[in-house]
Amino acid sequence: MSMNYKLSALAGKIIAIDGPAGSGKSTTARLLASKIGYTFLDTGAMYRVVAWVALKKGLSVDDGESLEMISRQVEISFEMDGDINRVFLFGKEMTDEIRTPEVTKAVSPVSVHAGVRTALVKRQREMAKNGSVVAEGRDTTSVVFPDADLKIYLDASIEERARRRLLELARKGISTTFEELKREIYDRDKRDSKRENSPLTKTADAVVIDTTSLTIEAQVERIIRLIKARILNA
Ligand code: DC
Q: Which of 72, 139, 175, 226 could cysteine-pair with 143, CB 3.0–4.6 Å?
């Protein structure tokens, strides 16, 4: 049986990928999804949209009640366009707006609120109800899809993650320093891992991949091998 035949037999499953900021989750999940013909579910983008709306409305990131209301009301959709996962809020494109340093700073405190999480997790499950989804975030392996068919935890050293962010921001013309990014990532890791509601966790059944010295292609290849071995029994 050819590899392609095997991969084409892969319908309706859920693959969940979690990990800290800069571990390569988004790029890996997006590439994997396009390789196996799955939909990419970027859960972080949904928290970012809520943070963007909060900033736009001048709300405090501590105002859980208003943030919950926003999370229930927003209509978020995605559209794959080649290498880019376009993000829409009520049909208006928000792809770049949700990746600014301001939103990145606000999103972690926004995502601690239980009401925000409940509303967004509900949407994430609805979006994945027919399966054939690669989901990525902080709690997709633990809370959103505890029964996922394959769970991956991507990790990398903080230096490597800061270096990747620096390159990513430089490509967008945003200048910052390595030390500043390292501190921001450290703070965000701490907040995302120590929070009371759905902290970033390595579940016992997740396969841990350290991406510090791996290319994106190698990460995707590794996951495809795991899919073959664990889901397709190939
Ligand atoms: O992956 P990202 O950088 O786009 O995520 C942005 C923030 O959203 C991250 O700091 C924590 C939060 N987040 C979350 O709490 N749960 C998720 N499933 C995904 C992201």
A: 139
Residue of 162, 194, 216, 186 lying closest to 17 (CA atoms): 216
Please say if the pLDDT value at position 212 is more than 70. yes
Residue located nearest, by CA, to atom 6 of ligand 1: 44
Q: Tell the residue nearest (CA) to atom 15 of ligand 1.
A: 111
| Alpha-carbon span 121 to 102, nearest angstrom | 24
Indicate whether this model's pTM tops 0.90: yes
56-106 per-position pLDDT tens digit: 999 999 999 999 999 999 999 999 888 789 999 999 999 999 999 899 999
Q: How far is the CA of 168 from the centre of ligand 1 (A)?
A: 17
Q: Ligand 1 — pocket residues by CB below 6 A?
A: 21, 43-44, 47-48, 107-108, 111, 137-140, 188, 192
The class that CATH gives domain 14-229 is alpha beta
CB 78 within 8 A of CB 41: yes
